[in-house]
């Protein structure tokens, strides 16, 4: 590796937050992490590639934020408490300003959730950031995709469709409203909500590929069907301002929301509301788990609503 690479790693190392359970962080051949005796380790990894997972003109700080956010969203969907992460960066060239921006975005989100960056890798190549995030859980407390029961309410945090709307506008050569663009570039991982749902929700998934696609995963793993009411899907004020024609498609089928979709017994609806109040996270009941298979969307009149665009698939033909 080049001297420059040492320099870059030193710059990262100088800026990372400390945690008592990081026995050994950046600088050795591996990190050493002390897991509390009564907890399980939750591990997840996600890669962001330039032009695929973010528009190529995305600001460095936003790429840094999003690279960690999408991983924290997976931990949130399991109900895990985030603790540590690693970062593998592939960069076309060494650009100190770009790296400073990236780290600023990445580490500001890490700090918000008390996550320590404990290692990684740095290589030359097309712009890409691969993050592994680790968190801890009480044994048996994980919110899995399997576990949804017939009769459960289906809930979703926050609002849906903003990121998809922003991306669609960008692809049409239009500039999205700043709040929509921020939802695409700086998703909010619902960490506090996920942790509060342990013991309440039967099943949970984070909405990264589109509501119906991700809810479909819950159905498949749980051996049930799901009916979501299109008119019940939460929309942000910014989304309500634009494109009534595409709104439902973005909400039900667009990706990159990073909200949590979960199911719970209807008897627990007040407990769910209270738990989400504590987590300072808005939550909306959007439908019901039914016998059968697959996730369907229904209109207010109970007719099946056909989504014009489905969740993002990388290898779709
Ligand atoms: P190795 O040759 O053992 O893979 P490296 O030279 O790749 O070691 O990395 C040296 C140290 O710097 C290791 O502790 C590694 O985890 C850390 N590191 C390298 N790149 C990054 C990065 N992008 N972010 C955080 N830590 C990194
Ligand atoms: Mg290495």
Q: What distinguishing features does this structure have?
A:
317 residues, alpha+beta, seven-stranded mixed β-sheet, four-stranded mixed β-sheet, 10 helices, 35% helix, globular, binds adenosine-5'-diphosphate, binds magnesium ion
Can you walk me through this structure?
It is a single chain. The chain is an alpha+beta fold and 317 residues long. 35% of the residues lie in helices and 26% in strands. The chain is built from 10 helices and 13 strands. The protein starts with a helix and ends in a 12-residue tail after the last strand. The model has no long low-confidence stretch (mean pLDDT 93). The structure holds adenosine-5'-diphosphate (ADP) and magnesium ion. Residues 1, 9, 12, 26-29, 87, 89, 117, 119-122 line the site of adenosine-5'-diphosphate.
Count of helical regions: 10
> What sort of overall outline do the alpha carbons produce when their principal axes are compared?
globular
Q: What is the strand tally?
A: 13
User: What proportion of the residues form beta strands (DSSP E)?
Assistant: 25-35%
Mean pLDDT metric: 93
Q: Report the end-to-end length measured between terminal Cα atoms.
A: 39 Å
State the helical fraction: 25-40%
Q: Which value, in Å, is the CA radius of gyration?
A: 20 Å
Ligand types: adenosine-5'-diphosphate, magnesium ion
Could you name the ranges where pLDDT drops below 50 across 5 or more consecutive residues? none
Give, in order, the helices and strands: HEEEHEHEEEHHHEHEHHEHEEE
Strand order of the largest sheet: 8-10-7-11-9-12-13
- Largest sheet composition: 7 strands, mixed
Structural class by sheet pairing and helices: alpha+beta
């Amino acid at each position: 590796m080049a001297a420059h690479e040492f320099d870059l790693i030193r710059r990262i190392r100088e800026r990372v937050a400390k945690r008592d359970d990081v026995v050994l962080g950046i600088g050795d051949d591996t990190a050493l992490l002390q897991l509390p005796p009564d907890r399980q380790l939750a591990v997840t990894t996600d890669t962001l590639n330039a032009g695929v997972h973010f528009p190529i003109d995305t600001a460095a700080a936003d790429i840094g934020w999003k690279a960690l956010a999408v991983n924290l969203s997976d931990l949130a969907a399991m109900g895990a408490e985030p603790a540590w992460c690693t970062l593998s960066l592939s960069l076309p060239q060494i650009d100190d300003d770009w790296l400073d921006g990236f780290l600023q975005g990445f580490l500001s989100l890490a700090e918000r959730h008390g996550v320590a960056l404990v290692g990684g890798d740095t290589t030359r190549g097309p712009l890409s950031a691969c993050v592994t995030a680790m968190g801890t859980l009480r044994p048996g407390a994980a919110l899995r995709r399997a576990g949804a029961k017939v009769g459960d309410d289906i809930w979703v945090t926050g609002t849906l469709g903003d990121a998809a709307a922003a991306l669609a506008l960008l692809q049409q050569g239009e500039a999205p409203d700043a709040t929509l663009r921020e939802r695409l570039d700086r998703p909010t991982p619902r960490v506090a909500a996920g942790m509060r749902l342990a013991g309440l929700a039967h099943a949970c998934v984070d909405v990264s590929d589109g509501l119906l696609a991700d809810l479909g995963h819950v159905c498949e793993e749980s051996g049930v069907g799901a009916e979501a009411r299109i008119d019940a899907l939460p929309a942000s004020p910014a989304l309500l301002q634009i494109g009534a024609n595409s709104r439902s498609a973005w909400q039900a089928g667009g990706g990159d929301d990073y909200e949590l979709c979960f199911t719970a017994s209807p008897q627990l609806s007040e407990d769910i509301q209270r738990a989400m109040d504590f987590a300072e996270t808005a939550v909306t009941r959007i439908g019901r788990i039914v016998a059968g298979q697959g996730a369907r969307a229904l209109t207010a009149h109970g007719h099946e609503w056909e989504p014009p665009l489905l969740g993002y698939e990388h290898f779709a033909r």
